[in-house]
Amino acid sequence: MNLRASLFKVPGKRLNKGWWLLKVRGVTEDQNQRLGTFAETSASGERVRAYVPRPLPPNPPLDLPQLMSVYERATTAVGRLDSVATILPSTPLFLYMYVRKEALLSSQIEGTQSSLSDLLLYENDEPPTVELDDVTEVSNYVAAIEHGVERLRGGFPLSLRLIREMHEIILRSGRGATKQPGEFRRSQNWIGGTRPGNALFVPPPPNHLDECLAAFERFLHTDETDLSPLIRAGLAHVQFETIHPFLDGNGRLGRLLITLILVEARVLREPILYLSLFLKSRRDDYYRLLQEVRQAGAWEAWMEFFLTGVAETAEQAFETARDLLAMFEAHREQIETLGRSAPSALRVHEFMQARPMVTIQTLAGAINTSFPTASSALEKLADLKIVRETTGKQRDRVYVYSDYLALLERGTEPLSR
């Protein structure tokens, strides 16, 4: 199937580009059909107008030929990224760290100040350098990703039930634990502003949630939209953020939803496409374009941005995987020069490809060796400058695979408050 046909499966359908020309500052009559309705509701003692979106897909349909160039780039990049499973010696090693990087970035967009090092310290039962709640939120997100993918692989459909399950995991501890984990909201929320009356956006009232979510789930399940999984993922993300069905955690779940749609559609064999770094770096554009969809039906502008993010993210992830391969091989060659110490050092090096921050005690137990042997192997790797001891202490020392962590930490600096 060619790329045009993969965007939509209606060969011969005539598309009038002028008819769907977007005018963000002047909504046309046709474009107005894409806009939702407003329902008056009460929130915090104020009467406000809440937005109720129309069901997906947009009507009039997307002007898909307008998106062809960026769609081609995104499709090519995702296909090449999917092939990474065939070139990495152990895909789970890459996934282990890449999923954690995504969890960190997605949580940072919501305001956490955690770092990748903090998360790894937490997972090694070591105290992190920031508030424990920040690291707990990131750790919960990792667990939600893993749960969602495992359920899909077990044949469970991407559904409202699965979304609630993941939400319960994301908010099971930390600051969100009091925000009805796993339950759709029963009260009015709003986005931006200090109160409902000056909010940037007010999502659907609680009494409209059932109809909005039922339509959303039908869109996730139906094959009748004739849209490719990439296009469906971009549409679904905006719709989920617009419905904003939970009291907290909507952003994190909405970003995770993109990857799950592609995994369920088997566009990706592994959950290795995450847009949080792109959205973090372009967050002003991101929020503006979400609003333009709601205010002007500007779906094409959003989809161009989204597909650009998919392309850039997939290209960067592929390059990261290639860099990791080259780094692992170079370090393996260094270790092989150690003579009789090489076998134990190679075992430690292999383990630290999955766990780039370890204590001697944890390492010894994990690879079933003695404390002195594990300590000696780490010291050999430190002499080669492959690992670095981070505490400066004589006891309870923590070693980090420096170059590996530095490569993955690109772009993970916490956002300013």
Radius of gyration: 24 Å
CATH architectural label of the largest domain: Orthogonal Bundle
For this structure, what is the CATH class of the largest domain? Mainly Alpha
Shape: elongated
Which strand order spans the largest sheet, edge to edge or round the barrel? Answer: 3-5-4
Overall pLDDT level: 83
Explain what the structure shows.
A hairpin with an 8-residue loop joins strand 4 and strand 5. This protein is elongated. Helix 6 crosses helix 7, helix 9 runs antiparallel to helix 10 and helix 10 packs antiparallel against helix 11. The protein is built from 18 helices and five strands. The strands form two sheets. A three-stranded antiparallel beta sheet has the order 3-5-4, sandwiched between helices. A two-stranded antiparallel ribbon has the order 1-2. The chain has two domains: 291 residues, Orthogonal Bundle (Fic-like fold); 88 residues, Winged helix-like DNA-binding domain superfamily/Winged helix DNA-binding domain (Arc Repressor Mutant, subunit A), CATH 1.10.10.10. The N terminus is likely disordered. It is mainly alpha-helical and 417 residues long. Helices cover 55% and strands 5% of the residues.
